[in-house]
C-alpha cells in the first residue's frame, strides 16, 4: 500500500477481533513512530506497549464517559476496543524539549511543541498499522493523569494519547471531510 492510499483508506476502528498481534507487527508500528520528524530532532516521544490485560483494563477505565442530552451515560467507544485488542500503545512526551532551548525556555509563541511532535509520531504509527492490515483509534478523551499513574509515567513526562492496536472487526463508514475550498487558501488567508 502506498502512502497516499494508506492516508485515504485509514479509518478509526472501534470494533476489533481478539486475534493476536505479533511482536513483529508491533515493532514495525513503533519503528514508524521512531522515524517521524521532530523539533530539532529532539524525539521527545516515548511509547509504552501494554499487553497485560489487567493493566489494559485499568487504563481502559480511565476513558471518559459522556452524558447524552437524554441523560443516558455512554462510554467512550475506545473502552471496549482496548479491552478487546491484544495491544495498547500509549504515547508519552518528555516536557521542555520540543520547541525549547536547552534551559527549557520556549522558543516560539506556541510554547512546548510536544503535542505536535507526538502527533506526527502517532500519525506515522496509525498509518503503518493500517498498511499492515491492523486497526487503531486515537484516544484523546480520557483521564491522562490517572492513566499515567497506572503506567508509572515519571514526572517531567506527559501522557498524551493512546490507541488500541488490533485486527479490525468492522468497516466503518467514511467520516466526511471539509471541501478543500473551505480549508485551503491561495496567497492570502481566505482567498480561494
Ligand atoms: C486527537 C484525537 C482524539 C480522539 N479521541 C477520540 C476518543 O477519545 N474516542 C474515540 O472514539 N475517537 C477519538 N478520536 C477519533 C476521531 O473521532 C476520528 O479520527 C474522526 O472522527 C475522523 O474519523 P476517521 O479517523 O475514521 O477518519 C480522536 C482523534 C484524534 C485525532
Kindly report the average pLDDT value: 96
Could you tell me how far the N terminus lies from the C terminus, measured between alpha carbons in angstroms?
A: 32 Å
Shape: globular
The CATH superfamily name is NADH Oxidase
Strand order of the biggest β-sheet: 1-4-5
Short description:
With 192 residues, the protein is an alpha+beta fold. It is built from 7 helices and 5 strands, in the order ααβαββαβααβα. The longest helix has 18 residues, at 114-131.
Structure description:
The protein has 192 residues and is an alpha+beta fold. It has one domain: 3-Layer(aba) Sandwich (NADH Oxidase). It is built from seven helices and five strands. The protein has helices at 3-9, 23-34, 53-60, 77-84, 114-131, 144-151, 180-183, and strands spanning 45-50, 65-67, 73-75, 87-94, 157-165. A hairpin with a 5-residue loop joins strand 2 and strand 3 (73-75). The longest helix has 18 residues, at 114-131. The model has no long low-confidence stretch (mean pLDDT 96). Bound molecules: flavin mononucleotide (FMN). Residues 11-12, 14, 76-78, 137-141, 172, 175 line the site of flavin mononucleotide.
Which labels suit this protein?
192 residues; alpha+beta; NADH Oxidase; two-stranded antiparallel sheet; 7 helices; globular; binds flavin mononucleotide
